[in-house]
Amino acid sequence: MSDFSKRLSALREQKGWTKTYVAKQIGLTSMQTYANYEYGRREPDFETTKKLANLFNVSTDYLLGRAAPDEDRNTADLADDDTIFTYKGQPLSDDDKEIIRRLMNGK
């Protein structure tokens, strides 16, 4: 079993979700396709991997075994110019980022 399949199973179980629920949420027509990801029999394409990361609120790096849970996207540094911030799928403007910085700094 790969890191990917182990992490996928663990994330789903932590949420208390069924394989069928996850499959439907990411747009798969077959629960068996998703189950094969958890069993390590198949690997998803890039788009499906992104959907899984979004659903479980983790980074794709975490799913792929390249990052520890505490290095997840939720720990991004606002000072990092390469970080992409979004709200409802839309990138934040520089003004919005500045407002967030001020709020976090108590100003």
Tell me what the structure shows:
The chain folds into two domains: 3-71, lambda repressor-like DNA-binding domains (434 Repressor (Amino-terminal Domain), Orthogonal Bundle), CATH 1.10.260.40; 76-104, no CATH class. It has helices spanning 3-15, 19-25, 31-39, 46-56, 60-63, 94-104, and strands spanning 86-87, 90-91. It has six helices and two strands. The longest helix has 13 residues, at 3-15.
Q: What is the radius of gyration computed over CA atoms, rounded to a whole number of angstroms?
A: 16 Å
CATH homologous superfamily annotation of the largest domain: lambda repressor-like DNA-binding domains
CATH architectural name of the largest domain: Orthogonal Bundle
- Largest sheet: spatial strand order: 1-2
Describe the structure concisely for a colleague:
It contains six helices and two strands; from the N terminus they run αααααββα.
Set down the secondary structure blueprint.
Blueprint: H1 3-15, H2 19-25, H3 31-39, H4 46-56, H5 60-63, E1 86-87, E2 90-91, H6 94-104
Task: Identify the notable features of this structure and list them briefly.
434 Repressor (Amino-terminal Domain); mainly alpha; two-stranded antiparallel sheet; 6 helices; 2 domains; 107 residues
